[in-house]
Amino acid sequence: MPTVSMTVNGKAVSVDVDVRTLLVQYLRESLRLTGTHVGCDTSQCGACVIHLDGKAVKSCTTLAVQCQGANVLTIEGLAAPDGPLHPMQEAFRENHGLQCGFCTPGMVMAAVDMVNRKGNELDEHTIRQELDGNLCRCTGYHNIVKSIAAGAKAMKGKAA
Amino acid sequence: MYAFKYHRPTTVRQAANLLAKFPEAKVLAGGHSLIPVMKLRLASPSDIVDINGVEGLSSIEVKGRSVVIGAMARHAEVANAQVLQDVLPALAGVPGSIGDPHVRHRGTIGGSVANNDPNADYPAACLGLGATIITNKRRIAADDFFTGMFSTALEPDEIITRISFPLAKKAAYQKFKHPASGFALVGVFVSKRGADIRVAVTGAGSNGVFRVKSFEEALKKRFSPKSIEGLTVPADGMNSDIHASAEYRAHLIGVLARRALAAA
User: What is the rounded CA–CA span in Å between residue A105 and residue B207?
Assistant: First the structure.
């Protein structure tokens, strides 16, 4: 089994894994970072979205071995464990942007990526378009869209 | 997914040698078609040749009267390339309509073209612009490259390195998106470059991407939606499934071709 090393949430990690291991399994099962979820496991739902070298990707459709040397950011790395929430997380809390919460980590990671690409002023149309790759089975989109607009504004001047 | 051996070559030559050595090997580019079918055990390659470590396959540049795109250029990179917006915006719109933002961060033009999914968008753009597919061995005209559903003229140890698109004077792509998958139920790419007029269709044909010669002939007089008014494509040879009947797909070809011509 090859040793796969990468940086996850700013920390160097190294695990021996079968080459078949998906990045999401590597995160959840080897590193016990279970904030990243497996929803559909077929690249549709976006519950597994993480940032790979600064870009949002679906970790269920990426092999861990492909990420050798890469920089990965998961929901756990967005805010310091003992510090305040990331502005986007805070906006989801404030706007009731979640119901059951299963899609939330992927939604938040997709939202931060959206701000990185599109800036801090996001209109509703843009947000809905850009959420194409994230599904909420509670159909709570209305508040998710509100949360992202508010979180995007709150992120102004702050690093992602 | 079934077990495989993983290789990460750093040159195209090394990658081609691996493909020659292992006949059941597959190239891994963006992985957004290959990894899903491996997870479903519909594909079981003995070896994975990951070309993400090969440098220099992602450039997008204008060369003479063509724009040349590296095989590993991601959909998001092509969609957002300013150079493309300037010289051939119709082509930039094609990857912009694929999947979702996360998928577009990974999927590549070379992977899409080599896979030749019958519902994929890029094959229509290649055939609709008369592109040249450049490999480690040769240059292949798009007209000769796509040989049927999921099949191409690529030899087992042949790897796409670049795709060259001639700069058409007029071009546009219109697609009827499947609402769930985002794939083209039908997509039509039209272009005019001098006397070369092309109408290429993806999603509809049961044998993959194809050209509509009757439309092209009618457009010779005038490159306008009016020129193909009343013309239809027979439903024979069209896909028919739970998403759309062959007749509906045939109908959509005419509708989308007219919309594309109006937009071009």
Answer: 41
Q: What is the pTM of this model?
A: 0.95
pLDDT at A160 over 80: no
Residue A121's pLDDT is 97
Tell the burial category of A80 from Cβ atoms under 10 Å away from its Cβ (0-12, 13-18, 19+).
exposed
Domain boundary assignment for chain B = 5-53, 60-263
Q: What is the pLDDT of residue A159?
A: 56
Which pLDDT value is given to residue B17? 98
> What is the CATH topology of the domain spanning B5-53?
3.30.43
**Cα separation of A34 and B247, whole Å?**
48
Among partner residues B48, B103, B180, which is closest to A133 by beta-carbon distance? Answer: B103
Beta bridge partners of residue B92, listed in sequence order: none
The secondary structure of chain B in percent helix, strand, coil, rounded to multiples of 5, reads 35, 25, 40
Domains plus CATH for chain A?
Answer: 3-76 (3.10.20.30), 87-154 (1.10.150.120)
Sequence-distant (6+) residues with CB within 8 A of A158 are A87
Looking at residue A98, its pLDDT comes to 95
> Over the stretch B53-90, which tens digit does the pLDDT of each residue have?
999 999 999 999 999 999 999 999 999 999 999 999 99
Q: Is the pLDDT of residue B249 over 70?
A: yes
Cβ pair A20:B103 closer than 8 A: no
CA–CA gap between residue A19 and residue A68 (Å, rounded)? 11
In this complex, the residue of A20, A22, A43 whose CB is nearest that of residue B103 is A43
Chain B interface includes A68 (CB < 8 A): yes
Distance CA A140, CA A148 (A): 13
For residue B36, pLDDT over 60 is answered with yes
User: What kind of fold does domain B60-263 have according to CATH?
Assistant: 3.30.465
- pLDDT per position as a tens digit, A141-150: 999 999 999 9
Residues of B with CB under 8 A from a CB of A: 1-6, 8, 28, 31-32, 35-36, 39, 48, 50, 52, 76, 99-103, 105-106, 180, 182
- A124 to chain B, any CB pair closer than 8 A? The answer is no
In degrees, to the nearest 5, what angle opens at C-alpha B106 toward C-alphas B138 and B157? Answer: 30
In DSSP notation, B73-110 reads -BHHHHHH-HHHHHH-HHHHTTGGGSS-HHHHTT-BHH
Distance in angstroms (rounded) separating the CA atoms of residues A59 and A109: 12
The Cα–Cα gap between B20 and B14 comes to: 10
